[in-house]
Amino acid sequence: MTDAPADTILSCTGLSKHFAGIRALNNVDFFARRGEITAVIGDNGAGKSTLIRCLVGVHTPDSGSTTFDGKPSAFGNPDDARQAGIETVHQNLALVDELTVMQNLFLNREIVRRIGPFAFLDRGAMRREAGALLSRLSINVPSVKSRVRRLSGGQRQAISICRAVGAGAKLVVMDEPTAALGVQETANVEGLITRLKAEGVSVILISHNFDQVMRLASQIWVMRAGQVVATRRASETSGNELVALITGASRAA
Ligand SMILES: Nc1ncnc2c1ncn2[C@@H]1O[C@H](COP(=O)(O)OP(=O)(O)OP(=O)(O)O)[C@@H](O)[C@H]1O
């Protein structure tokens, strides 16, 4: 493959993974550059999610090596990846419906104030920080006190992404972030992804939406049957070429 460039934030070499007779990943080399949006595309079952899950500690690869932020990174579980600065925004959003926007943003990283031997949740500080984060990322929700179950799909997706940024992610991995959204909400979430990039956050985006990939990504990786079959700068490819690479009509590597 193309050698990983100096500004690589995450990479893997020779990554393989099988499940009970299915070779889901076969000797995959991949990299994502710092501060860029990197897309991974491919047909159903191509191995996109398995690749991402191996990179963020959900699956243990059978073989191969990975690096993150300049260091070897064999994450044993997603918490280790999170500690290192990788947040994953899943298709089935991990938000708690009955909690407020603020509570979701600070889930498992609540701000605590200590007075003598006592510890209190500092709701004022969390409200202020939540408000500042939403406004910095131009996310519109009725209030930080709104229950997440009252929000639209696009607002919920935005809160998930916002939580990743609030947690200090250097890299946010998104698996089909707009698959369930309408046109306007998709545009809002795409705007947010672009703002992450402007803030210097690196993004890996799995998407079936070619137009979206061409609009957002700088580098596009194409997978087929568990392998990377091509990688392209978005500026040097076209929707037609990507379709040909995905289906195997083009064998260019
Ligand atoms: N936990 C698992 N157990 C068994 N097989 C699995 C598991 N996860 C993935 N696979 C298989 O591995 C292959 C790659 O699946 P993967 O989900 O990575 O593809 P994908 O490109 O993300 O597809 P999609 O776009 O449909 O999500 C498929 O054949 C899939 O059925």
UniProtKB/TrEMBL annotation:
Domain of life: Bacteria
SMART domains: AAA
Gene3D superfamilies recorded: P-loop containing nucleotide triphosphate hydrolases
Gene Ontology molecular functions: ATP binding; ATP hydrolysis activity
Keywords, sorted A to Z: ATP-binding, Nucleotide-binding
Pfam annotation, one family: ABC_tran
Statement: the UniProt record of this protein carries the keyword Nucleotide-binding: yes
Span of domain ABC transporter: 10-250
Family matches, as PANTHER family: CARBOHYDRATE TRANSPORT ATP-BINDING PROTEIN MG119-RELATED, SUGAR ABC TRANSPORTER ATP-BINDING PROTEIN
Family: Belongs to the ABC transporter superfamily.
Protein name per Swiss-Prot or TrEMBL: ATP-binding cassette domain-containing protein
Species this protein is from: Lichenifustis flavocetrariae
